[in-house]
């Protein structure tokens, strides 16, 4: 794999993306939405401020990541441009690596720019007492890792599918599964084991360390949505505690597992899609 070719592909793709009106519209919409959401919830910003303020990303992360990722390779195949690229001396691994780099940089830019703008407006305008810099850093780590997980899913689907329609169908199915069906599946399994689906606790909070059955807090965090909802509290609180020389009473095992699962979702689908693309017959 030639590094110059990878960077050339990434640079060209990034330039194409930032010229897109849809990308800039996404930045504007997200900025306005965040300022509105944060302003309306400003009365709740005492304690774990940034944990509350990144709530919108439970929906925004998959939407933006899949929107950026599903055309990466499938779009090249559908348009026929991939044959021109490969005919010009580029290899399939270089194409995947370049697309991955450009889409990741674009996604981080699309998410971080509105967040920074909105954070400045909220901090200056409403001055949430607990909105610390360390908490902000922790929140953005969670947003970035979660968005990378969804981008990995989208890019994996794009590499695996021969058309954009199939790519978006795969991504849409996984969004539906994780947003709406995963909890019901796990509760059914838990009912089979225990005869009840009522735990009597918040299964996603990072501030609870008593779980029954023991496998449930881990299984629920296989879902990137639940992993995000847990780590959005766990990571900022943990970093703020470490910065203050304190400790937190949290479920470290399940929450670290959830963070690891986000990294898995950001890499394994790409690896599977890469393998399928490398061995695919191009039409």
TrEMBL record:
Signal peptide annotation: none
Domain of life: Archaea
Keyword Transport on entry: no
Gene Ontology MF, one: ABC-type transporter activity
Transmembrane parts of this sequence: 21-38, 50-73, 104-126, 132-153, 165-182, 256-277
GO cellular component: plasma membrane
Pfam families tied to this protein: ABC2_membrane_2 (PF12679)
Keywords: Membrane, Transmembrane, Transmembrane helix
Name of the protein described by the UniProt record: Copper ABC transporter permease
